[in-house]
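Problem: given the chain below (460 residues), write out its structure.
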Amino acid sequence: MDVHISLEGRGDLAAQVYRQLLDAILDGRLRSGERLPPTRQLAHRLQISRNTVALAYDRLVADGFLVGRAGAGTFVSAEPVRGRAAPKGVVRPRPIWREVDTPAPLPSTRYDFRVGVPDARLFPMETWRRLVARELRVSAAGYSDPAGHIPLRAAISRHIGVSRSVHAGPDDVLITNGAQQALDLIGRVLIEPGACVAVEEPGYPPARRLFRSLGARVAGVPVDEEGIDVRAIPGSARIVYVTPSHQFPLGTPMSLARRAALLAWAERRNAVIIEDDYDSEFRFGARPLEPLQSLDRAGRVIYVGSFSKTLLPMLRLGFLVSPASLGPALRAAKHLSDWHGEVPTQAALARFIDEGLLARHIRKATRVYAARHTMIAEELAADVRLVPSSVGLHVCALGVSVRPTPGLTVEPLEAYCGESPPQRGLVLGYGAITLDDLPEGLRLLKSRMSAGPEAAAPRP
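Solution.
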C-alpha cells in the first residue's frame, strides 16, 4: 500500500517517518496485517536514504507496531490497534442542529411491527441483479443530468399517469435519493428563514425536523377522519405538507371535500402544497381518490413519490413532480446538492417499469399485504379501536400502549406527535412480519397491551 508521508526541512527525517507511520497505525488508516512498502521503494519515493527509512521501521518494530517477516516484508502488527477519534474541537453547529438528532433505528425482531418497512423477500432480487448488471456494462461513465436518467423520468411519468392519474411529462419529473431528498430540495427552493410551514399532527417526524433545520417555523395542524383540518392551518403558513392518500401515521384518506378545501386555501393564501404519496400503491379496497396534483389547476401542488416502500429502502430512489415554474430551481438545487444519482440503478428501474415488472411486483405484494392487514384487523377488532384504512403498510390503533417486550417491536403513536399532549396509540406495520408469525405476534402484542378510556371512544 502506498503511504502518504510528507517531510519538512532537514531535521530528523527518520523521526518524521516514524511519527507519520505511527499516526497512520493509531488512526486505523494502516490496519493490522497490511504490508508496508519496502524500505528501498519508500526511500526512493521520499528521496531520502534507505537507512533513514530502515531506522524508522526498526523503531516501530521495537515498539511492537510493525513486524518483519523474512522474505515477505514488513507488516503492521497483528495486535489490534484502536483508531484514534478526531479532535473534539471547538466549532459548534447552528443552534437548530443541537435540537435535530438522528433517532436510532428500531431493532429487528421476530415479531416486527415496524412502520414503513416492506417485505424484502417479495422483491425479485435476481431479476433486479440482471437489470443492474446489464446497465453497468452499457451505461456511460461521465456525469449525468441532475434531473435524472431521462428514460426513468419518462417511465415514471407514464406509471403515475396510469396508476395515480398524476398529470406529468418527463420534463416535470425530477429523480431524487428517496422522498426525503425531494423534501429537502423543495425546502431549499421555497423556505425563507422564519417562514411558517404547516404539517399534519400527528405526522411524519423526518419532514418536521427537516423543515425546522432549514429555518422554518413548523406548525402542527390537527387531523380528523377527513384529513387535515384546513380551518386550523395558520394564516401565516405558505407551505403545507400533507399525506392525503394514506395519512401518516393514522392511515385515513383525505376526503374529496377536504381536498377541494385545501386547494382553495392554497389559492387564497398564495401557498404551496407538498403532497407525499408514500405507499398508496398497496390498495386493498375502496376506490382511490384523486391526488391533489390531478385536481390542481393553478400549479400549486408538488407531488412526491418514493420506491423505498414499493420496492426496497436500500435503493434510495424517489421523485418529485413540480409545476413548470419551479422546475429550473429544483433542478439547480439537485445539482448543488449531489449533482445526480446512480445512473445504472436509475436505468435498471426504467427497464423494470417499462417491462411491466413493477406492476407485477405491486400486484403480488398487495395480495400478501392485504392478507396481513385483514388478519390484524380481525384479530384486534374486539380489543382496540383501529383507524379504518384500506391502503398501505400500516394501521393505527388508538388509546392503547404496549409494555416493552423482548422479541416484539412496536412503535407508539406518541413518536409521531410534535405537539402536546401527544395522542396515545400504536402504529402497527405489517411489511416486516410474515403471515405465519402474525398469529403469535398478535397474541404477544395483546398480552402486553393496556388500553385507556379513549381506546373505545369515537374520534373527535
